[in-house]
Design brief:
By secondary structure, the chain is an alpha/beta fold. It contains 9 helices and 7 strands; from the N terminus they run H-H-H-E-E-H-E-H-E-H-E-H-E-E-H-H. Helix 1 runs antiparallel to helix 3.
Length: about 260
């Protein structure tokens, strides 16, 4: 039954993306940029409905009061495709720094350009990266929120953390608060797998880290805060979903935490 629901959900998920992108294209490109963002956010909400209705997976968000006004860096854990889009409805006007190849995709790339996402050539150096930072500062100064994943890529739940220094550079150069976010959607939407598991999980938004710290000290603090909160949430999520099959990384981390607490 889980396999059938997973296939059905995946089919409808991508069909929903294609159909909405085609049907809503005229309105999207005629509306002012920020109002057009509402179309993408409604697509996200429809996916949450599909995930709950077909797979039986629900979630809740804690700590919305920790989100500041205006521009800030939103720094979530990254475990699956779910967290690449799922929180957009709760952010005012977010943007990403993303690989430029995504903007070359017909229609989808046009959507990205409309929202002034910041493309980057990952092999570039020097003047190109300076231009990327200049564009990022311009978007941030207009009150937008930069979504950046501190570990750079998807990591399975419970895996040894691998934080990149890039977020410390952004923190130093942009001089805005950083909002850490922990969650474990990868337990229900595993990366590189078609299977989707039913259950319930939490997204926990932590207090913002204000600008002004030394970049090295900031990164050390960010890692400590996020990993402590992530471990705590992993224990809670596993306990709340006793029938959920856990990946080896999560089982290993839970065993380590249990041994440490003993």
């Amino acid at each position: 039954m889980i396999a059938f629901r997973s296939v059905l959900f995946n089919t409808l998920f991508y069909l929903n993306l294609i159909v909405q992108m085609i049907v809503m294209t005229p309105a999207y490109f005629l509306l002012p940029r920020k109002k057009a963002y509402g179309i993408a956010k409604n697509w996200v909400r429809s996916n949450h409905w599909l995930f709950e209705t077909i797979v039986g997976t629900t979630f809740e968000i804690e700590g919305l009061e920790n989100i500041p006004k205006g521009g800030y860096i939103f720094a979530p854990k990254h475990q699956s495709f779910w967290d690449a889009y799922a929180l957009l409805p709760w952010l005012d006007d977010p943007f990403y720094i993303l690989k430029r190849e995504l903007t070359w995709i017909p229609l989808f790339g046009w959507y990205l350009k409309k929202q002034r996402m910041v493309p980057v050539d990952r092999s570039a150096r020097g003047k190109v990266m300076a231009a990327v930072m200049q564009r990022t500062k311009a978007e941030m100064n207009s009150g937008r929120q930069l979504i950046i994943y501190p570990e750079g890529t998807r990591r399975p739940p419970g895996a040894t953390p691998e934080y990149k220094y890039g977020i410390a550079r952004l923190y130093r150069d942009l001089q805005v608060p950083v909002v850490p976010v922990v969650m474990h959607p990868g337990l229900f939407w595993p990366r590189r797998k078609f299977i989707r598991y039913p259950g319930h999980f939490k997204v926990r938004i932590l207090p913002a880290i204000e600008p002004g710290m030394d970049p090295d000290a900031f990164l050390a603090h960010l890692v400590e805060v996020m990993e402590t909160a992530s471990d705590r949430l992993l224990v809670e999520t596993a306990a709340a979903n006793p029938n959920l099959p856990l990946p080896p990384t999560a089982e290993r981390r839970l065993a380590e935490l249990k041994a440490h607490a003993a």
